[in-house]
Amino acid sequence: MAKLFSASIVDFDVPMRIAIPLDNAGIRRIGDLVSLTRKELLQVQRLGEKSVDEIERILDRFGLSLGMSMQ
Predict the structure, then answer these.
(1) In the chain, domain spans
(2) I want to staple 22 with a disulfide (CB 3.0 to 4.6 A). Which of 27, 47, 48, 61 is the partner?
(3) In the structure, what pLDDT confidence band is assigned to residue 2 with cuts at 50, 70 and 90?
């Protein structure tokens, strides 16, 4: 699981329209992303409900979700 959490967001085929705002907010690894809640993600500039929905769908494909503990 540690290897998965250290993977880059772009390795998960996250669309650039989502990856760029995440990168600008300092969210570059899957571990950074899954440690956030939906509410926290919605506070990232240029990310809206549809983008967060898409992030959740992408994470779900890999058995991950927002708000996960990385332990």
Answers:
(1) 2-61
(2) 27
(3) confident
Q: Are 11 and 36 within 8 A, CB to CB?
A: no
The DSSP secondary-structure symbol of 69 reads -
Is the Cβ–Cβ distance between 26 and 47 less than 8 Å? no
Residues 29 and 5: beta-carbon distance below 8 Å:
yes
3-state secondary structure at position 8: strand
Burial class of 57 by CB neighbour count within 10 A (0 to 12, 13 to 18, 19+): exposed
CATH number of 2-61: 1.10.150.20
Work out the pLDDT band at 19, boundaries 50, 70, 90: very high
CB 67 within 8 A of CB 32: no
